[in-house]
Write a structure and sequence with these properties.
This protein is mainly alpha-helical. The chain is built from two helices and two strands. A two-stranded antiparallel ribbon has the order 1-2. The longest helix is centred in the N-terminal third of the chain and has 23 residues. The chain is elongated and about 55 Å long. The model has no long low-confidence stretch (mean pLDDT 85).
């Protein structure tokens, strides 16, 4: 159980650092602007849902976590 706490702390720190990087403007310009991302802009409102970006990030994170789990055994 002690290892799980360490793992969660490391994941939280990585997410925090990535959040600051993306928030500060150092994110790649294509992130969130892929074909298939939903963007609806009207006069006084806007709706934006980056579904393709979410799918690609999910696939990449799943691959990374599976690679780390293979090396951990």
């Amino acid at each position: 159980m002690h290892d799980m706490g360490k793992f969660l702390m490391v994941i939280g720190a990585v997410v925090l650092v990535l959040g600051f990087i993306l928030w500060s403007g150092f994110a790649p310009k294509w992130l969130g602007r892929l074909p298939g991302d939903i963007r609806i802009e009207r006069e006084h409102s806007a709706f934006y849902f980056p579904i393709v970006t979410c799918i690609i990030l999910s696939i990449v994170l799943s691959l990374l976590l599976s690679i780390f789990s293979i090396f951990r055994r």
